[in-house]
Hints:
By secondary structure, the chain is an all-beta fold. The protein has strands at 22-23, 30-31, 36-39, 45-47, 51-53, 59-61, 65-75, 81-90.
Amino acid sequence: xAHTKSLGTSKNLRESAAQRLGVxxxxxxxxxxxxxxxxxxxxxxxxxxxxxxxxxxxxxAAVNGKVKxxxxxxxxxxxxxxxxxxxxxxxx
Length: 92
């Protein structure tokens, strides 16, 4: 027999680190080629001119310039309208 009472284990003591998602550069801010503009899951923001999209849906600048945000309407295949946010980089 045990001399001390057994202590149980807990399964919920681990916590994952935050992913640091969101907008990193605002409208009008200067940006260099390769810098991250937005970290996102899925395509909440659509890449525009001079913006590339990474494999994890991260948007980053392809050239040096200033960040520009704009909104637009996009018609889906079934005829529904979706309002999209487009991010582009304007060269000086």
